[in-house]
Structure to design on (835 residues):
């Protein structure tokens, strides 16, 4: 009975979202304020019913209701309660429900947080978001309902959640990633609303900026969590694989990165308006495309867990409708937009344009690399696989170029920047970056690796150029303290995010070049020494977990001969699925991780062990966290709220 | 003119849509290699059974055989292992293994536990050979003829149905070589 209520709640949410996508839109066109006013309560209603559906699905998992197919596939009596909850989004149907719930959440957030916006804009934005919600709900109800039953022969025991997914990383990775994916629908809806209303002014850019920053922050966090999860859970210590599913999340990220920079230009200077709209549309469309690629099985990938042509056709139809429709609207409406100001070739506008070009081209590269095998095949030109070498060969130079401009841009000014100014400000950071990079590199390894050197030069370049810019800002004030406090939150947010880029580059280069590992047969008492650490294997014993049995080894670690840590890698056998999983033991550190994975049991209590030394690997995710925090800080800048109030007041004056 | 350009994103997307639609109805498991009818890429990598013995592409010459790319981290490899046992151990077809981006110790233990259908296994730890071969993901299975030329590529699990197809192809290759 309860699961049927879940279906019922989903249907009600669908009905409300259909009304939401029609009524306020008509109201906005006919000037019927009453109809537009329906938008906010409807958004709340959709969110309420989807929350009910999500809670019911959670309840079905917690009460082990194996008559529900989705529960029987993804849970088990012995699954711990927190994994029963995360099992809600452990499969196709549930992760779609989570997707659409998050969409409803963002719609609600816009409805609540838009007090200062003109009501007709709010109506249009919420209506567009309602359309997206409705499309996904139709997809869920017609092709992938998580509430479908296995009756009358319901199993007595469930199949358990895939052990790979029984992990903290999976509890948090999909919700964060979806918050990002779906959050881009806000900027998208604002863009569509602006196109529909024909008022493509700087105001829409200002309204969308905080939303886009928050969405981008979540997207960054989600991708980083996914990479971190792959690193410690998959057991072979890599952190990025250029897998199609990873690419699907990277593409919207790249375009969203271009978008947050382009929005800044549009808001401040009123240029690039139609370009920014196109980016806002593309960013969300790419997250839809990502969903399509992952869910439809169009590309073979390690993680595509639902492959079904019927679902694929449905999503493709939806894509054609949403993406095709919005691009058509763009083509018709955006052509007549005029720029509000002009700028010189050497200016901050151009710098941000370079940023936009680099990120868009990078995204196009990833898109081509991901779809190329498919296109070749469809044209009968043979099938070709594109692997990491392609992506690395393109990405490293693109991102190096991006970082060089990131440094130069620190001293650019709006409208026009004299070339003289660049030279006078930049030579010192450039020299310092090279010197500091060589020195640090030599101190670390007493050798010079070209890629590490390049990475260090680029990182120091960011730090020194932006550091110098920061100091000159402080000097403009009477004393340092007011200098510190007078800078806006969005300024500090930007600095933090750019610093994150520098930190991440160090991590990527160091772990790629200086990683070291040993594979060995270790009997109790055996020891292995490398990189100043001694690993002593004390043997393994059997341990009983809630839904697995495990062989847990104890490895004592000495640093320079002094006892340092004990590490406990495990080999788990998950009983329900009969799957064996390696549980890695990690000793995380700021400058290096120690990583121990257990292999198979050999004779006489000996085990195959894989020991890895991973220098600076944390910096990759630390950099991403800096970017996330930076974007959040920028989004919380009170100036957006103040400006929105001013805009509203101004409109009031105009209409009166 | 400007008006015209505004349509490019729309047109580009529609073209992409056509390909995506076609892609939906293509069989993702039939992914011929770029190396079809080319010699097996050269390599020198250790054998799984005797790590101090180095194998090269010459080891894959001499008879028509299957080459199976597998790894212990790949769940589908486990699903197809039973079928490989049947092909290798019961039907006596030579299967070369390419242990892809894997831990050799895990791999040896796996073969001990689930039986070993392979006649030779080469260890491609960093995936270099897989890269040269254009491996998309594990498992993949190739047909290599007696001259060491790659003749066919199958991506994904080898089921009984796939095996019958591969077997047919191997028979055709055998007859053409008699001529």
């Amino acid at each position: 009975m309860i699961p049927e209520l879940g279906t019922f709640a989903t249907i009600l949410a669908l009905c409300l979202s259909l009304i939401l996508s029609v009524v306020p839109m008509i109201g906005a066109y006919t000037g019927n304020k009453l109809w537009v006013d329906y938008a906010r309560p409807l958004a709340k209603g959709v969110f309420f019913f989807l929350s009910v559906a999500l809670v019911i699905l959670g309840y079905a998992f917690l009460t082990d209701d194996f008559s529900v197919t989705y529960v029987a596939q993804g849970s088990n009596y012995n699954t711990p309660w927190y994994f029963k909850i995360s099992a809600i989004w452990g499969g196709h149907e549930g992760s779609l429900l989570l997707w659409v719930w998050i969409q409803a959440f963002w719609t609600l957030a816009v409805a609540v947080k838009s007090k200062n916006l003109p009501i007709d804009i709010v109506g249009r934005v919420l209506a567009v978001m309602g359309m997206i919600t409705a499309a996904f709900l139709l997809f869920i109800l017609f092709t992938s309902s998580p509430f479908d039953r296995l009756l009358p022969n319901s199993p007595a025991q469930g199949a358990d959640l895939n052990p790979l997914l029984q992990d903290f990383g999976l509890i948090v990775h999909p919700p964060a990633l979806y918050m990002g994916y779906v959050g881009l629908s806000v900027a998208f809806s604002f863009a569509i609303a602006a196109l529909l209303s024909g008022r493509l002014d700087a105001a829409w850019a200002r309204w969308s900026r905080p939303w886009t920053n928050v969405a981008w922050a979540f997207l960054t966090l989600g991708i980083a969590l996914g990479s971190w999860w792959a690193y410690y859970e998959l057991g072979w210590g890599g952190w990025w694989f250029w897998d199609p599913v990873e690419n699907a999340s990277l593409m919207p990220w790249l375009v969203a990165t271009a978008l947050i920079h382009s929005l800044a230009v549009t808001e401040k200077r009123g240029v690039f308006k139609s370009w920014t709209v196109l980016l806002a549309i593309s960013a969300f469309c790419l997250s839809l495309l990502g969903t399509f690629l992952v869910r439809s099985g169009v590309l073979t990938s390690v993680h595509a867990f639902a492959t079904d042509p019927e679902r694929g056709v449905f999503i493709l139809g939806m894509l054609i409708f949403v993406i095709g429709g919005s691009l058509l609207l763009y083509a018709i409406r955006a052509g007549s937009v005029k720029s509000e100001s002009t700028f010189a070739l050497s200016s901050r506008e151009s710098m941000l344009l370079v940023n936009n070009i680099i990120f868009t081209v990078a995204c196009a590269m990833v898109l081509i690399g991901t779809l190329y095998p498919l296109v070749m095949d469809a044209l009968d030109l043979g099938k070709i696989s594109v692997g990491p070498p392609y992506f690395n060969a393109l990405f490293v130079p693109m991102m190096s170029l991006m970082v060089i401009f990131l440094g130069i841009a620190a001293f650019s000014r709006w409208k026009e920047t004299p070339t003289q100014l660049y030279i006078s400000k930049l030579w010192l950071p450039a020299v310092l970056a090279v010197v500091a990079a060589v020195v640090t590199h030599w101190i670390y390894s007493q050798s010079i690796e070209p890629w590490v050197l390049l990475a260090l030069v680029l990182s120091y370049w960011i730090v020194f150029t932006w550091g110098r810019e920061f100091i000159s800002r402080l000097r403009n004030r009477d004393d340092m303290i007011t200098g510190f406090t007078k800078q806006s939150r969005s300024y500090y947010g930007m600095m933090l995010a750019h610093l994150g880029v520098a930190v991440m580059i160090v991590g990527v280069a160091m772990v790629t070049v200086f990683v070291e590992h040993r594979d060995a047969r270790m009997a109790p008492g055996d020891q292995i020494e490398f990189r100043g650490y001694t690993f002593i294997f004390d043997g393994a014993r059997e341990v009983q977990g809630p839904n697995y049995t495990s062989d847990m080894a104890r490895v004592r670690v000495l640093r320079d001969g002094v006892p340092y840590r004990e590490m406990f890698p495990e080999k788990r056998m998950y009983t329900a699925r009969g799957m064996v999983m390696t549980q890695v033991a990690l000793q995380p550190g700021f400058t290096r991780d120690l990583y121990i994975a257990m292999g198979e049991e050999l004779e006489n209590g000996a085990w195959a062990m894989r020991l890895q030394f991973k220098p600076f690997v944390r910096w990759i995710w630390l950099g991403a966290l800096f970017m996330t925090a930076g974007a959040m800080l920028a989004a919380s800048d009170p100036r957006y709220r103040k400006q929105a109030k001013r805009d509203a007041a101004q409109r009031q004056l105009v209409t009166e | 003119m400007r008006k015209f350009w505004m349509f490019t994103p729309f047109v580009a997307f529609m073209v992409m849509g056509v390909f995506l639609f076609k892609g939906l109805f293509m069989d993702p498991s039939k992914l011929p290699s770029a190396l079809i009818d080319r010699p097996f890429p050269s390599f020198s990598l250790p054998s799984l059974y005797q790590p101090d013995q180095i194998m090269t592409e010459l080891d894959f010459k001499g008879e028509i055989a299957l080459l199976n790319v597998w790894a212990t981290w790949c769940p589908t490899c486990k699903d197809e292992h039973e079928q490989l046992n049947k092909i290798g151990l019961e039907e006596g077809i030579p299967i070369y293994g390419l242990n892809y981006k894997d831990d050799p110790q895990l791999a040896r233990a796996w073969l001990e536990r689930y039986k070993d259908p392979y006649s030779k296994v080469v260890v491609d730890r960093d995936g270099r050979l897989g890269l040269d071969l254009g491996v998309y993901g594990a498992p993949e299975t190739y047909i290599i003829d007696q001259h060491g030329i790659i003749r066919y590529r199958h991506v994904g699990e080898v089921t009984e149905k796939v095996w019958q197809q591969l077997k047919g192809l191997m028979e055709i290759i055998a007859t053409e070589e008699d001529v």
Q: What stands out?
A: Residues 67 and 96 of chain B are 5 Å apart (CA to CA). Chain B has six helices and seven strands.
